[in-house]
Amino acid sequence: MKGLLRGRAGFAAAGAASNVFKRFVKAIVLFGSPGSGKGTQAKLLTECLGVPHVSTGEMLRDGIRQGAGVDAAVAATMHAGSLVSDAVVDKMVEERLNRPDAANGFVLDGYPRTLAQARNLADWLKERGVREVVIHLAVDYNVIIARLTGRRECPRCGTPYNVVLRPPKVDELCDLDGVKLVRREDDREEVIRERLHAYDRQTRPVLEYFRNGGGCVIEVDASNDPPETVFRKIGQAIENR
Ligand code: ADP
Fold this sequence. Notes:
By secondary structure, this protein is of the alpha/beta class. The protein is built from 10 helices and 7 strands. The protein has helices at residues 2-7, 12-24, 38-49, 56-66, 72-79, 86-97, 115-127, 141-150, 189-212, 227-240, and strands at residues 27-31, 53-55, 106-109, 132-138, 151-153, 160-162, 216-221. The strands form 2 sheets. Strands 2-3-1-4-7 form a 5-stranded parallel β-sheet, with helices on both faces. A two-stranded antiparallel sheet has the order 5-6. β5 and β6 (160-162) form a beta hairpin. The two termini are 26 Å apart. The structure holds adenosine-5'-diphosphate (ADP). Adenosine-5'-diphosphate (ADP) is lined by residues 34-35, 56-57, 60, 77-78, 81-84, 89, 110-111, 113, 117, 186, 195.
């Protein structure tokens, strides 16, 4: 990611946004359906801004891998494509945001995902006098299906691929370290359907909540552009706000 940030032209806007962020914004909330590219944009933003990437999905998956803090019921919920309980996720996020490295700001990816979580976050931010900037990555439904069904990642270095849209040079092997790529447990078709259903039912209303709250909600069309173009659009939008 570092190479991507430093090596490509057009990141000036992101650089300017970085200064704006450091002065005025502490909390960025990346919002969008599964497959909208939240994780990719969060990684680019956190590299650029030097703040932690707080991904509830990654934290839960890490917990399952390490067998610590996340019980079997949570794993089963995730594998079925449903949402983990608010109590579990709220506690996990609060603990993470209270760590010293988040004091200067953070990028939230995958949280809040329910109205109750949104209220919990709003209280946390209000107590600390912090305003959030919400970035909504809007992506066409068919693009989402193509992205999620073809998604693979390197289990060693985490580099993301897509067998159709962004294939590795050698079939199913990571370009960087040659390790066999893996598919996320919940990227099977029936689970994808349930995740999108959960998004429509429980998460989409959170966007209205943010819009009605009078805070800053930035809309970014993220259907067709490559990640670095989407990132540039985000940078420009933050700078113009
Ligand atoms: P995606 O956005 O592609 O679905 P994530 O990695 O953000 O991927 O989430 C994977 C799974 O982790 C979700 O389907 C859900 O089971 C669980 N999860 C992540 N974040 C939350 C959250 N804020 N609330 C409840 N469950 C969550």
